[in-house]
Specification:
The complex is a heterodimer of chains A (281) and B (307). Chain A is an all-alpha fold and 281 residues long. Chain A has one domain. In chain A, 79% of the residues lie in helices and 0% in strands. Chain A contains 12 helices and no strands. Chain A is globular. Chain B is an alpha/beta fold and 307 residues long. Chain B has 2 domains: 216 residues, Rossmann fold; 62 residues, Alpha-Beta Plaits (2-Layer Sandwich), CATH 3.30.70.120. Chain B is 36% helix and 27% strand. Chain B contains 11 helices and 14 strands. In chain B, helix 4 packs across helix 5 and helix 9 packs antiparallel against helix 10. The chains are: A mainly alpha (281), B alpha/beta (307). Chains A and B meet through helix 1 and helix 5 of A and helix 2, strand 6 and helix 3 of B.
Chain lengths: 281, 307
Amino acid sequence: MLVTARLVLVEAARRRLILAVIGLTLLAVVLTGWGFARIPSVGTVPLTPDQITLVAAQLTILVAFMFSFVLALSAVFVAAPAISGEAESGIALAVLARPISRLEYVAGKWIGLAILLLVYAAGSIACELVVIRLAIGYAPPSPPVAVLFLYAESLVLLTLGLALSTRLSGMVGGVVALVLFGMTWIAGIVGGVGEILGNDTLVRVGTIVKLILPTDGLWRGAVHALEPGSFFIAARLAGPAAAANPFYAPAPPAAAFDVWAVAWIVVVFAAATWSFRAREV
Amino acid sequence: MTASSAPIETVELTKRYGRITALAGLSMRVEAGSVFGFLGPNGAGKTTAVKLLLGLARPTSGDAVVLGAPVSDEPAHRAARRRVGYLPELFRYPGWLSAREVLAVHCELARLERPWGAQIDAALRTVGLAERAGDRVEGFSKGMQQRLGLAVALLGSPEVVVLDEPTSALDPVGRHDVREILRSLRARGTTVFLNSHLLSEVEQVCDRVAVVDHGKVVAQGTLAELLRSDSVRVRAADVSVDVRAEAARQGFALEGDGDRLVAHGVDIERVPLLVGTLVRGGARVYSVEPVQQTLEDRFLQILGERH
């Protein structure tokens, strides 16, 4: 298992994936840092400290969304071809003929990719928040919790991508996973619209889709962890319309949802292993 | 299926992919220490059989035993694969690793005891890649990748080595090297299961062969058994029509004119009877020699009889 996991990390390093991601992340961090530093002088009228905090908080959530999106895409792009690519190319033949179980093989892939995502999630977001702090003096309330939710979101997509990779080619699996991710995000907004309109059906659709693929619920958890207290006051002033805002979360996800997200990962991982055990290479 | 003393044995091994039958009750036995040639035309089910033996695919029915472990007993079969080396027909290794690193990965996957350095060096030397040990595989030609695959299969001195078309990408020098490797494996007592299209190669190195067609073994045995001919070349003078007729009555079909004839229906025990018949009829016999078949002739004959 560990050798498979290690190979994932070596491949990412040797194929310059890590280098490319670090380079682009640093570029994004520098540009956003420059943007944050310009917040106080952006308008014609100087902003009050509360206004600066509000704008910085909203922008921080938007930047977090960028990282969430990059993490989600990265998770799908690396997971979707992880097994199918090796099965199609023939690399898996020599490996699976060794005394290694399919569970070990899938678990090794999962662990290796999960480590990559963890390093990226924690490293990039920490780097970004430090730069925001230096640029404008703003720090969101619970960065570790936000990182945890964003990481969990990427793990959900990693597990989904890997499960699809046991049966579908990398391209097809990647497209399916991304479409599901996008649909879930839209379903989150649909659920919010349902709340505004008092439409139970729409609310139910949002909830069910959130359970089928818990990415949007986890994203909302990250958003909530990044929201300062003043944010909730502003949202209350905005009325029920705030519920449909995908960059606003009035409350953290319920503990039951968090448990469900973990269970989802475990169940889909088990399904991936079962699927690959039955696959002939 | 009970545990077998043969390193590889299959009984009525069947594999269907939907409506397509890739293997239709394959039964064969590979004796310990032999080099076993597994022959057949394209689509005969050879690679499917190899994949079933290595647990890469599952049989629809029947069973196969590798080193005492039935493929249906997954944990036991997995443990047995520690002692099996395999070169797939589709040989690909991670291009971003060096040859030495690929071998180290396979040492680890095969759960070989450390340190591995000496056996990795030995395997690289055996396949002629010692000079390129530190180079990344992505820079290797197909032939070099196949040599690397062979090195992977030889790691840990396995008891059974399964080679699926091991010379498909090799030049004549490479093929010669592979034959030498096979001979040294046999000398060491390793059982080799060789799946190959190259009949001349099989003829040179294999002790026993099985010919598979439409997923079934249609002929198997030692090369001597398989290539045994029931024809002899006869050099004789004064072979009259009457002698030919008498020979025919004895079950010998004489072909050819002049003093160079071929007699069919003559197994080795009946050669004296043939000679006696000719001599009694007044013919002068100078020589009688068996007609030697090549494996290719025999292979085509076997397949021809079935189609």
